[in-house]
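Proteins fold reproducibly. Next comes a concrete instance:

***
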Amino acid sequence: MVCYLAKPIQAIPTKKIFLYRARQNGGFSFIEIIIALGIASIIALLAIPSLVNYIQHSRLTEATTVLSELTLQLEKNYLDYRVYSTIANNAACNITTPSNPQVKYFSYVCEIKDNGGQSYVITAKNKPNVGLGDGDKFIYTIDQNGVKTTKAPFDGGSFDCWVIKSGNNC
């Protein structure tokens, strides 16, 4: 007895089974996952440097803010006593430096110049190991005339104003 089949049996190629099996199970194919990872890595390569610059920029604003506050304290002292320092030897400023949590990234030094307490320089230097590089990488100053200077590791290094991000000009 001879048996005839209605349709001949065809072999299913293994490549098609591999590519379509993921769709049947509701998952993603290997190629789709690789493409998604490639796109995500390109976005990360573009976004991470911007994020690092944004964080650095936000940390540098501490110096300019605190220096401005200290300058106001010294000017108030000058209005009251006609000198920037009421201490007998005029060696130190008569100001209160803000404490934590406001001061995290910089240390501040106020120096009265030796001319009868009529001039000062306040300096802010970044602390080491706070995300701004080694200590003294960023230095901001201001004096009694309001002259501001910046020493920073970008765009030439020295500025006659306060620069808090690369590309800023005075």
About this structure: The CA atoms of residues 150 and 163 lie 6 Å apart. Residues 30-159 form one domain. The two ends are 101 Å apart (CA to CA).
